[in-house]
């Protein structure tokens, strides 16, 4: 299986690049989570069908509990666009994690690599604690800080939350999807709601390695996931599938 962990933001000025989101208080968040689950365009049965061999860590309830962090996700535009975005996101994270099987980066030899000691906050959890975790394989100390700052969670001090709390893991995936453009020119969320198409989501996630002929087999794997998921949700995949 194709594996890689990427630097989601440039090390310098990472936090400044964020679109920050403040989470609601716990009581309000509980109501928001319930509403998000009821309104999410993917049912639990469909989620189970998408990922029949998934790790038990990646729960449907963890995903729906995370939706309140970014209310626009799969909730912007008409029903077709909402379902296309949900399918696109799940297709990409499914590819990244081998069908939601892997919670942490498999190559443990890489673990000490992800501490950028030039950052003023350093690596308080330990130099080998910022390896890839979660549905987008969040990595590097500056990305844990950036995602944590946006979500109101101390991920720099406690990166293990991303592999121990399903809702936190899903929130880090939604943070990237909704606020980061990576090697692309737009966020994956904007790519789907503005009509750029699935190919631009791939570019935002791993375009520097896969797009423009870099690794067409990996791009096709993502497309295959997306087409299968859109069919399951009963919508057309739209145009511009490849990058």
Q: What does this protein look like?
A:
It is a single chain. The protein is mostly helical and 243 residues long. The chain is 46% helix and 0% strand. The protein has two domains: 26-102 and 167-233, Lysozyme; 103-166, Endochitinase, domain 2 (2-Layer Sandwich), CATH 3.30.20. It has helices spanning 26-39, 44-50, 60-66, 79-96, 141-151, 161-164, 166-179, 188-193, 198-210, 216-233. 48% of the residues are buried.
Short description:
By secondary structure, the chain is an all-alpha fold. Helices cover 46% and strands 0% of the residues.
By helix and strand content, what is the structural category? mainly alpha
Taking the alpha carbons of the first and last residues, their distance comes to: 21 Å
Tell me the number of strands.
0
What is the total domain count?
A: 2
- The backbone outline, from C-alpha atoms, is globular
What's the CATH first level of the largest domain? Mainly Alpha
Overall mean pLDDT stands at 88
H-E order: HHHHHHHHHH
Count every helix, treating DSSP H or I runs of 4 or more residues as helices: 10
CATH architecture title of the largest domain: Orthogonal Bundle
- Kindly report the oligomeric state of this protein: single chain
Report on the biggest sheet: none
Rounded to the nearest angstrom, the radius of gyration is 17 Å
Topology-level CATH name of the largest domain: Lysozyme
Outline the low-pLDDT stretches.
1-31
């Amino acid at each position: 299986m194709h594996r890689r962990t990427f630097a989601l933001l440039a090390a310098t000025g990472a936090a400044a690049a964020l679109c920050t989101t403040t989470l609601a208080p716990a009581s309000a968040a509980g109501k928001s989570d319930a509403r998000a689950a009821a309104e999410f365009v993917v049912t639990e049965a469909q989620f189970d069908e998408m990922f029949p061999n998934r790790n038990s860590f990646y729960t449907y309830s963890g995903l729906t509990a995370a939706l309140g962090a970014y209310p626009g996700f799969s909730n912007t535009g008409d029903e077709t666009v909402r379902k296309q975005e949900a399918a696109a996101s799940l297709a990409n994270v499914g590819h990244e994690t081998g069908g939601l099987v892997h919670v942490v980066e498999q190559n443990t030899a890489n673990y000490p690599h992800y501490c950028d000691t030039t950052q003023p906050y350093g690596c308080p959890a330990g130099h080998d604690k910022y390896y890839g975790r979660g549905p987008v394989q969040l990595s590097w100390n500056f990305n844990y800080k950036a995602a944590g700052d946006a979500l109101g969670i101390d991920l720099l001090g406690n990166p293990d939350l991303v592999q121990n709390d399903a809702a936190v893991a899903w929130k880090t995936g939604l943070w990237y999807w909704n606020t980061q453009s990576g090697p692309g020119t737009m966020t994956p969320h904007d790519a789907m709601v503005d009509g750029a198409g699935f190919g631009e989501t791939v570019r935002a996630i791993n375009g520097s390695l896969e797009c423009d002929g870099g690794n067409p087999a990996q791009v096709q794997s993502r497309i295959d996931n997306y087409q299968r998921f859109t069919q399951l949700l009963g919508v057309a995949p739209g145009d511009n599938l490849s990058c």
